[in-house]
Each structure stands twice: as C-alpha cells, then as structure tokens.
C-alpha cells in the first residue's frame, strides 16, 4: 500500500512510499500478538514480592497453652498462620516471570500489529525529523501540525536522536523509539504510528525474513 510522505509541518511533499505487503499487509495472527504482548508485560514484572511464612516469623517457640482442658482447639505456636502476626500460608516468593518465544513468532506478531495499523490508516510517514534543541514545545508543535495532538503516538526513528527524544520525554501520550526498539506492545498501545522515512527500510528488512 502507498502512503503519502509528509514534512515536519504536516504538509504533503508530493511523494509517496510503498509499504511492503510482507510486513504491512499480512493477515493478522491474534494469538501471536497475544503471546508477544504477554511476554512483554511479563518481562516488566520485577518478581521481588515476598511474604514471610511461619518458619521466617520472629517469635517464641514455646507452646502457648496446654494441650487439653482449655475448651478450645489445640495450639502449639504463636507463629501459626491462624494467629494475628503469624506467617502466611503459601505466600508469594521471588520468581522470574519471563518466558521464551521463538524469533519467528515475535516477527509475525509485529507484522500482524503493523498490518492492523496500516489497515486502519493509523500510519504516518515523515520525511525527516530534527530539532535544533531539546524543547517540549517543539514536539507539541509537531503533534499539532500532524493532527495527532492529544492522541497516543509512537514515533519510530531510523537511528537515535537525542534532541527529539528529550523533547518528547515530558509528554505522557508520546513516545520515541528507534526501529530496533519497536515492539508489538508499543505498536498496539499507540493510536498513531509516525515513521521516519529512513526507518522503513530497516524495519522491512528485519521483519521480512
């Protein structure tokens, strides 16, 4: 499919780029998308949660009352989970939530997500993007010119640009990544994806394998 190339002011340059059908025109695989997003979210979890069990509680080890004659149930330890301040039964322990996915499946997931965005006309292509200094107002002006202010937007650069990244950092609804940092979750989390023309070649070469 063809997409018009815009300049930094949001005006058409008169040129068009052809998005590869092998990347932006595949039949979306929803299960691959689900697995890739699940892995991304799992990798964000620190897994440092911990609750003390009865063996880890500090407290007396003496038998708290005699075995018989109290009229209540037998009780041997103040650290028992049935008492206030006792250990927790089957509490959370530190663990690693990450899991492995095949590279082919992850590529299919990204292509599926990009194809959905292309089908919904949520992809923009800009010829170049560069700021003389890192200022948030420059990025806000860019969003206004592109007509995507107030929407979640993902800008994909061919290579890192510190001024562009720093200009977007204070904006909650905008994110800047390089083509190598593109993930299925980031694609789906954005309402619009803005590609720099220079980033398309790298994306298509990486995902069309």
UniProtKB/TrEMBL annotation:
Domain of life: Bacteria
One Pfam family this sequence matches: Ribosomal_L4
Family: Belongs to the universal ribosomal protein uL4 family.
Gene3D superfamilies: 3.40.1370.10
Name of the encoding gene: rplD
Protein name per the record: Large ribosomal subunit protein uL4
InterPro entries with a match to the protein in the record: Ribosomal_uL4, Ribosomal_uL4-like, Ribosomal_uL4_dom_sf
GO CC annotation terms, alphabetical: ribonucleoprotein complex; ribosome
Gene Ontology molecular function, alphabetical: rRNA binding; structural constituent of ribosome
UniProt entry tagged with the keyword RNA-binding: yes
Cited function: One of the primary rRNA binding proteins, this protein initially binds near the 5'-end of the 23S rRNA. It is important during the early stages of 50S assembly. It makes multiple contacts with different domains of the 23S rRNA in the assembled 50S subunit and ribosome. Forms part of the polypeptide exit tunnel.
Chain positions covered by the region annotation Disordered: 46-77
GO term, biological process aspect, one: translation
PANTHER family: 50S RIBOSOMAL PROTEIN L4, LARGE RIBOSOMAL SUBUNIT PROTEIN UL4M
HAMAP family documented for this protein: Ribosomal_uL4_B
Keyword terms, alphabetized: Ribonucleoprotein, Ribosomal protein, RNA-binding, rRNA-binding
Keyword RNA-binding applies: yes
Subunit note: Part of the 50S ribosomal subunit.
């Amino acid at each position: 499919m063809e997409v018009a190339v815009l300049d930094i002011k949001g005006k058409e340059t008169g040129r068009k780029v052809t998005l590869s059908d092998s990347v932006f025109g595949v039949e979306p695989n929803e299960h691959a998308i689900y697995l890739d997003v699940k892995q991304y979210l799992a990798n964000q979890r620190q897994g440092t949660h911990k609750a003390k069990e009865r063996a880890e509680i500090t407290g007396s080890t003496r038998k708290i009352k005699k075995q018989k004659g109290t009229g209540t149930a037998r009780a041997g330890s103040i650290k028992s989970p049935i008492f206030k301040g006792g250990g927790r039964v089957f509490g959370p322990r530190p663990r690693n939530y990450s899991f492995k996915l095949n590279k082919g499946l992850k590529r299919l997931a990204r292509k599926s997500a990009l194809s959905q965005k292309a089908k919904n006309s949520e992809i923009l292509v800009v010829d170049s993007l560069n700021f003389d200094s890192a200022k948030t107002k420059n990025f806000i002006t860019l969003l206004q010119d592109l007509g995507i202010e107030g929407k979640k937007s993902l800008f994909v650069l061919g290579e890192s640009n510190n001024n562009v990244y720093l200009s977007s950092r204070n904006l909650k609804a905008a994110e800047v990544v390089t083509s190598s940092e593109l993930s299925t979750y980031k694609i789906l989390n954005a309402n619009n994806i803005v590609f720099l023309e220079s980033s398309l070649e790298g994306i298509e070469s990486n995902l069309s394998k």
